[in-house]
Amino acid sequence: MQLRKNIILKTLNLNIMKNIKILTFAILSVFIMVSCDDDGGDSPMLDFSGNYTLADQMGRPAINTVFIPAAMKDAYNETLPRNQSASYMSTIQNGLMALSPAFANAGDQNALGQDAEAFASLLSTDVLNVSLDGPTTFYDGTNVLTGRNLTDDVITVELLLIFGGEDFTENPTLSDDNVSANDKAFLSSFPYLASPF
Amino acid sequence: MKKFKFAAVALTMVALGLIIVAADHIDAPAVQGGSSDITDFYAFQGEDNSNMVFAVNLQGLMSPAATEAATFDENVLVEINIDTDGDFIEDLVIQAIPRNGRMHVFGPAAPASTGTQSTINSTANQTIVDITGYNDSPRMASNGGVTVFAGPRDDPFFMDFARYGEVVGGTAPGFNDPGSDTFAGTNVMSIVIEVAKNIIGSTGTINTWVETKEQ
Question: pLDDT 10s per residue in chain A (197 long)?
C-alpha cells in the first residue's frame, strides 16, 4: 500500500514536469486505483479464476536434492506424493546403499532400526509427518518425525540417519556439518521467523 | 566391515548428482531460482499449542538489497496440502495468492480436485493480509481461526553447504568443526499461516507438503 502510494506520487511528480494533459490522465489513474483499493475484504474486482499447474513441491527437507539423480529431479518434482514410492523407492534405496558405508553391508541399519529398504520406503514419499497431539520436531532425541521446527538441525539429523549407523557413531566426520543453529534468533510469537537482514 | 572408502563414495555422490543446495533450495532444474522455487517448508505447533503453524519459504539466498526489491509473483499459487487419512492425497488445502500488495489466503478447505492442477477456492474462508515491506514490522491478519503473515524474513535454514560441496566433490575429507553457515545473512520470501488445530483434525498424524502452481 505504502509502496503503491510512493509509486503514484512519483508518477504524479514526473507527469507534472511533462504537461497538463498527461497530468490529467495521471490524476484520473489515481482515482481509479484508489477506488480499486476501497473495496475492502470482499475484493469483488480481483480475479482468482484460471487453472494453476504444479511447478515445485516439497515435504521433508532435502529429499529430492540428496537422493534423486540429477536426470530425474524434474520428473520427481512433478510426481505426486501418492505415486512417488512406486516410481522412486528402488532408486532411493540403491542411492542410499551406494552413498553410505553405514548401509553398505547386509543387516546394516540406522539408529531408527531401519535397514536401507525400510529407510528408503519412508523417504520415498516426500511429505512431512506432523503430530496433532504433542511436540512437533524432526528429531529431538525422543520424538522422531512429528513435524519440523525452525530450530531443528535437519541436515545433521539426515546425515546421522544416512552415515551414522546403528548408534550414530559411524563416519563421524560425515555425519555432522557442525552448524547447529540459525544465525538469528527465532521469535517466540507469530510470525516466528526472524526479521530479514 | 564398514571402512569408509572416501574416493568411491565421493564419486558415487557426484555421479548421482547429490548436490544439496539447501533443504529444497534450487532442487529441480526446471524451477531453479524462479519465483515458484520453494526453498523450505516447516510445520510446527504454535505458541498456543492448540494451533498448528505452516511456514513456506520462496526465492532463497537473497542479499539485503535483493530482498528490498523482492516481490511475490501474482501468477504463482502456493498450496499447502494436508492429508488427514494417510493415503497421501490432500483432504484439505490452504491456498495463498498475492494480489495488489496483499496476500489472500483461502482455507483450509476441501479442494475441488486433487493432483497437479488446481483452481482457487475463492469461496473458502479468506484471510487477507498486507504484504509486509522490507523495513516494516510484521503485518498480520486473522479470520476464521487462521492467522497470516507474508513478506521477507531471514532464511531460517542453516547448513555448511560450502563444505558439503567440497566433501562430495572429493576435495575435503569431512566437515569442519565448527562449520560455517552458508545461509547466514541471506533472506527468503515467507508465508506463515497459523491454523487452529480443530480445523484440521482432533488427534493423530497428518501428512503435509507444499506446492507452487503456476498459471
Answer: 444 444 443 443 444 444 444 444 444 444 444 444 444 455 458 999 999 999 999 999 877 766 777 788 888 889 999 999 999 999 999 988 888 899 999 999 999 999 999 999 999 999 999 999 999 999 998 999 999 999 999 999 999 999 999 999 999 999 999 999 999 999 999 999 999 99
Residue A103 lies in a domain: yes
ipTM confidence: 0.89
Cell of A101: 558405508
Residues 6 or more apart in contact with residue B24 via CB below 8 angstroms: A56, A58, A61, A62, A64, A65, B38, B39, B40, B41
CB contact under 8 A, B31 and A67: no
Q: Do A182 and B174 touch (CB under 8 A)?
A: no
Instruction: Tell me if A32 is assigned to some domain.
Output: yes
In 3D, which of B79, B52, B76 has the Cα closest to residue B146?
B52
Domain of A71 in residue numbering reads as 63-167
Q: Which residue of A has its CA nearest to B143?
A: A41
Indicate whether A43 belongs to any domain. Answer: no
- Co-location of A15 and A74 in the same domain: no
* Size of chain B in residues: 215
Q: How far is A161 from chain B (nearest CA, A)?
A: 15
